[in-house]
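User: Fold this, then the next.

Assistant: Folding the first:
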Amino acid sequence: MKNKILALVISVMMIVTVFPMVSFGADGSFEPSVYGKEVRFLQDIGVVDDSFDTSVNMTRSEFAVLVLKALGYDSLVTAGTYDVVFDDVPANHSAFSYIMYAYKCGLFNGTSATTFNPDGEVSMNQAITVAVKMLGYEHHAAAIGGWPAGYVSMANKLNLLDGINIIPQREAAHRSWIYILIYNTLHCDMLIHTGIGENIQYEIFEGRNILTENHDIAIMEGILTGIDDVAIDGNEPGDGYFSVDGVVVKTGNVIADGMIGNKVTCYAKKVGSDYEAIALYEEDNRSITVTDEQIQDFNYQQGIYVIADGDKNMNLKIGNDYHLIYNGVKITGSQEELMKPLAGSVKLTDNDDDNVYEIVEVEEYYNIVVSRYDSYKNSIYDKNPQESIPGNATERNVDLDSYDVIEGNAEPEKLQEGDIVSVFKSPDGKKVRLEISGITVSGVIDEITSGPDVKYVIGSSEYTLSPDCRFDPSTLRAGMEINALCDVYGKITYVTSKSNYLSGYILEFSDPLASGMSKDSVNILTGSGTPQAYTLADKVRIRTQSGARSYSSDVLAPEFGTNGREFVLYVTNSDREIVEFILPLVINTKAEFDNPPEYPLYKMDYFLTRWPGNTTSKQFREEICGFDNWLVFDSKANVF
């Protein structure tokens, strides 16, 4: 659509000058906008490179180069021949051709008849003036006051200053303001003069701007309806393509993953018969991603997810015509069992801001603890393939030849024994995604929280267990030192080594010289009746009901009395060093081993405030600590 606008009418309409609000930093200086989508876009279309210095304002020569690149005039600049006009811009100046072209076509003026000041910082008034000229509105600016007020007023009317919180003036413009100004200018409708004389007419070409006219860039705004072989409108764009409101675009170097169903803006150029994307951006979409443990319920009849939100629940409603994507495959028909993953996540997207979610993306997985990869059979084998599996899979081993499409970052031939691979399978068994996280956890478990969402505090970080955990979590205790591997969601999946909880009667402590061992050591009579020698870690923690303290191994013995004889639980690390002693405070009864009878042994039961996982106190005594007839001591004790 073309709007005919008379210059006289424009002059009357725009006689009032409006300035943006000013924003000051803590030191009284102007607070520049942060670098955001604008500079990323200019980089994506090749107008700005990655080498600029954000701490330095832009010079006039740099701005001349930027403007002509933004206009798409590179080839015109290099094809021209120019005479030296300015004494400070010799023919060997790095920006000579750009400065002279900008001067010849009226975009730039010199600071005098013989100087340009190429190294001087460009002011905001100068930058605004050039932007208005780039779009062809200089006559309108002249009609409402000229330089600088008329140009500033015109720039405001065209929304060229959106996102720039300053009052335009003679001060040097921050580099980020320049980039925002040029970004806005490239997206602004152009004005073309179509008449002469007193009644000059102009035509505004709506939707036609510097990008479309000078760069041949098509701008597509809409819903990303498909990626590769997945589409919410039933029209799969094909491998290496995506679609925006049904218009198919070659993916090129952009990343469209995770945007299906979202509002996007795509910039593309025509290459042969195809559009090829050069930039792709998500617009404001209301999306929320929830994990399996957050999903309390899914009411299929009402279309409501019940999500844990702190100490309360919230309801998220999906639309009647929602689109379900399960592990990267569009699902047709109703498949309620796929809506609530046992291990994974759900991403819900509301792309029309009506508080109803139209897109449901489910990721569900199970974990492999790699035993080996068989290149002959092209299969990945699990260490314990018979363990039950969450989701739609029927076996843990992965026969890669059975799939048409294999995706993900896990390279089968590079897998090592013990690697954790998270497997995402499509319901039809034709597509699989294999992800290896490489996330490891090493350290002492400082705390195991209680409640439904159990967390393991290790150092300054909190971890949860994978829903498809590949070890018995009841064997983990506070104070244990572990080495573990995580799945692609960063959840502990497999413990490669851990310290052990043992019990016995301390016989004596020895220094290295007396024991013949490399470090301070201790002899402990174990439940089997056989004394065992253990070295001590450099720092050993002693935990009692009143708390815990760490001691150097060479000063540990006095803490156990003059004879050093006391019943304890003790914790060893993967190097068989004792890292912790756990001491009772009250012992009701004592008993003796049958063999040898000369060693007395106190036996007791610990009443703990919580047990790991679903483990009972009896299981802890019998299976973890190895005693089956411990006697009861103080029922209020909390020694862990």
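Now the next one, as you asked:
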Amino acid sequence: MTKIILVNTISDLSVIPKNLLDENDTKIFSFNLDVHTELKSKKIEHKIADDILTLDERLKIFDNLKEFQSWHSQLNTNEYDLEGINLLKILDRNEFLSYILPNLIALKIIIKIIEKENPTEIIGTNEFSKIIKSIIKNKNIKTKFFQNKIKKELLWDNITAKYNLGGIPLTFSISRKNYLKLKNTFETLSGFFYNFWFKFNNSKKGIILFLEFNPELFSNLFEKMKNYDGDVVLLNQRRSAISTKKSLEVIKKSNCKILKLNSILNKDEKSHISSLTEHYSNKINNLWNNSDIFNNIFEFEGYSFWDSIKDVLIKTYSERLFFYISLILTVKKIIDNIDIKCIVSLNQSGETEKTILEINKKKFPTILLEHGFIERVSETKRFDILSEHTSFNDKIVVWGEPKKIWLINEYDVDPSRILVTGSPRHDDYFSSRLKNKNSHEKTLLLAPNPINEINGQSGTNLKLQFNQTIKKTLEIIKKFDNVKVIVKLHPIQLQHNEEIKLLIKNLDSSIPIYLWTSVIDTINSVDTVLVLTPEIHATPTMLLESMILGKPTMNVFFDKTIPEYDHIKNNAVFTVTNNDDLEINLKKFLFDNNFQNILQKNADNFVNQFMSNPGTASKKLASILKSY
């Protein structure tokens, strides 16, 4: 007789009776780092469930995402279309996939555990109950599930606000609904004082429409667009275009206008939204009741996982349907009534971008702007399914010739659709480079790149290795004379970021941790930059930005084989693995001046090859946009 207990989250341990955890004939499997740490601290014998899957198996699961991200297209009906766009399609792609993938991985792990252990009884909580029932429905296995009342949510159900008070990072979460209310109030009050609203009903000029841009990051571009013979308009539904003092200054200085979505529809038009919401809500609720359809769509290796994801998806669409209908009607009115010369976007997967690009239907020209440092080799090509460039159907703006060549050779993209401008967001970096100081005290910037659920690599052992490397790095630095550490976290909203922050605070509360401080100012304040890259495909933008600013840069990679990216082949970044001797490598990196000089020279050569128009990319892009 074999019992197994599957513990998914730390809160599961508060609902699964302790006497069951202490039974000798029971095997316990932990599914995340917190659970493993807690069980280990209590000396409760257990196995790490993540060990069941190899990296190759995880990557094969990741490869299935392409099939699931377009699940709505398998319905073969336009019954859920409004103004030609499927309401079920609007949900942010990354938000959807970052929820789906952990469920797929859990499904595969549990399948393998059951096959190997052949249990007579499975114990867990309601979090895994539906996955387990799907797997054992034709097997004679007892189950016992305890109620965990903590609800699952999607990535953007709550918005994390991040601020720095000196070197102290402050964060707090707020519901999506309340965030949008606060954003609207803040923008309304600010607009009253600064008069930056785009006057929709009095628009007579052509406009260039920027979707979800942060003006602070693209200040040079908007300054170069100041003399455009038309209006430069920003549409920001997620993050406000005036969320910081600097972004507001950019708006004022460049004479950009902000398009306020909730002011477009008149009172009569808004009055129809509630009835439309009720109409489509009834249709979609009837659809959810057809389990056969969804069991077929959300099937993996012969097992349906629909029951394990449906509650969250149904809740999400129910809560957001009014917003989606409002967004569609508003965008339709904008597209029909404004002379848009060009639409500029950073992606086509967000709710705002999807809606506008779908309703536009190629009526107005569109441009997709590259906005992150990504190098690829054949081994990491699979991750291009998360890239926007491989599927975008209009003009694509890239940072340099290497990306253009990759898109042409690997995806047969028409060369005439690819515009090489350089990176407008990095013009300020080239003009902000300072001469390196030779001070007695050295400052190291530690930049840990968080693990993202959407990539399929997040697991207990990877996080353990990551945490151990952070701990080891800080211990080594303390051995060196006159070296201090500061930390810069990635601004992305991920749980792992919060875990990293807590870890560093617990290891050494005196270390400054920065969230939203200027990347340029932060890098310029240090002597060297150390990046930690736990994901096998990742090339963090911090690597490139440190190279541009002339800082010797080191990258710790968490795999035995380091991909042969150009920046690695050119020795532009000192790249080691987490299994190499970290102390020896850090000593060489921090104190060998000749080695640092070689790194900087190689980095300068790489940047010149990788990026076109260094420092003048905004001027190049602005000239293209003004030609529309």
